[in-house]
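thought: fold this chain, then report.
action: predict
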Amino acid sequence: MAVIDMLSRLNMDAAVLRTRLTALTQQTATGLKTRELGDLGTELPRAMDLKATIQRQHSYTAALSAAASRATATQGVLGQLQGIALQFADTVAIKLDPTDKQGIIRAAGMAKDALVQVASLLNSQQGGQYLFGGTDIANPPIPDPSGIASAGFATQIATALGTLGGGNAATVLASATTAAASNVAGVTPFSAFLSDPATGLNEPRRAVPSADAQTLAYGISANRNAAAISTGATTTGSWARDLLGGLAMLANLTPASAASPADFRQLASGLTSWLKGAENTMAEEAGALGQAQAQITSLQAVQASTVTALTTQLAEAQEVDMAATLTRLQATQTTLQASYTAIGQLGSLTLVQFL
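observation:
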């Protein structure tokens, strides 16, 4: 009976060793303490919390990456728009001469083409989303860019130009500014969403979530300033409206507009200032967007460091110390082999040998 009892105990010990050996072999193969989170014991709550936090951080990282791409694309469009404003302020409007009829006609033609170009640029997309549409990312901020030269605001500006004379240049310029600033359907070239005070006209800037309960604003809507403030004697308060209004005025000039040379010169001077103001405001807007881009880059670096640190902590919770595990595996194999040897020797004892 003693031999049987001893064999039974050795077999039980061997079974335990085999179970341990299987677990250690699996750990050395996967590097994990266990394949099932539920088997982590006291480390389970910590591991679950770390996994959830890492997932959130990955979501923030993805959002920041997408925002960085959109901000870069927006910055590129702003550069092109600023170039157009600079061209027409410094090399076209400033050279308007009431005695140069052909020059007036050429300037008007160039401005008509530029109007369409500006409208198309404000309809720029990145990743299938409109950059200047506010939260209405699926629809163009200017529904009819090719027809913008005949939009309501441009027609009203043309009508005001038709009254130029008798010392009313300032009044004509003011009427043009009012038309460009309008949000009335049929007058404004901008979408119904952007023109509605209940939706896009007053909504917060598009922003990216950067951390729990934290966002960073970077979006720019086509019909209103984001971070910059428009200044100057002539402004709608929006660099885009100022650019479109100035170009529309220039596009509707004709030789007949120069019937009163003094008024024409005054109007041309005001028009140049109007376009120059748009250019200066765009430069400020681009600078502010550049600061947002720098913040996004900094936040991306912080997110990367955070994920690395959290991943290290998660590894501590669910991964094994490989060197120690290999040592235990070797020791378990040696012990199990010794157990098998002992079982074999006991099993071969004869009654005479035992007695």
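thought: worth noting. The chain has two domains: 2-51+320-354, 76-309.
final: tokens above.
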